[in-house]
Design a protein that fits this description.
It contains 4 helices and 9 strands; from the N terminus they run βββββαβββαβαα. By secondary structure, it is of the alpha+beta class. The protein has one domain (about 1-165): Hypothetical Protein Pfu-838710-001, CATH 2.40.320.10.
Length: about 170
């Protein structure tokens, strides 16, 4: 089992980069067995992972454990709420960090969120996002995939629209 701390910020998107196909990308499907604490099963292409995440927003304890395909298929059927499907693009940032751009599919078609992982809280707090990233939604629970799994597309799109308007 791999134990670590995830230090991550999340952003809405102003503009999707035009050259997405030039970046490494993979398909993700994930479901949540519990959201407090977060217990998630994920298929990332042909890898299968069980993840535990503690409470929190920018810094959370995280454990990952590999699953077999059969184990994943058994557990994903037990997921509460929506199973989330997305394509994740790995985009290098000029600061040396990596932006993970998630373009959601199926239930959340049209939703796009970027995540950036950091090695320290100071690095995360001092990060200057590129112009194509929008509002920082790190500390807003509505943008945690676990919480999203309990929502409907229209509800989330309405919240994104309202959130962006209220931030101006």
């Amino acid at each position: 089992m791999n134990k670590s701390y995830e230090i991550e910020r999340k952003f809405l998107i102003k503009k999707i980069p035009s050259n997405l196909d030039s970046y490494v990308h993979f398909d993700i499907e994930q479901g949540y067995l519990c959201i407090d604490p977060v217990i998630r099963v994920r298929r990332k292409d042909s890898d299968y992972i069980l993840t535990y995440k503690s409470r929190g927003f920018m810094v959370r304890e995280e454990y990952e454990h590999p699953l077999t395909k059969n184990g994943y298929e058994h557990l994903i059927r037990k997921a509460d709420g929506n199973v989330i499907s997305k394509t994740r693009y790995i985009i290098p940032d000029s600061s040396g960090l990596t932006i993970e751009l998630d373009i959601f599919k199926k239930t959340f078609d049209g939703i796009v969120i970027a995540e950036i992982e950091f090695t320290s809280s100071d690095e995360a707090e001092n990060f200057n996002p590129p112009d194509w990233l929008g509002d920082d939604v790190t500390r807003n629970i509505y943008f945690h995939n676990s919480y999203m799994s309990r929502m409907e597309n229209d509800e989330l799109k309405g919240f994104i629209s309202q959130y962006s308007v209220n931030k101006r």
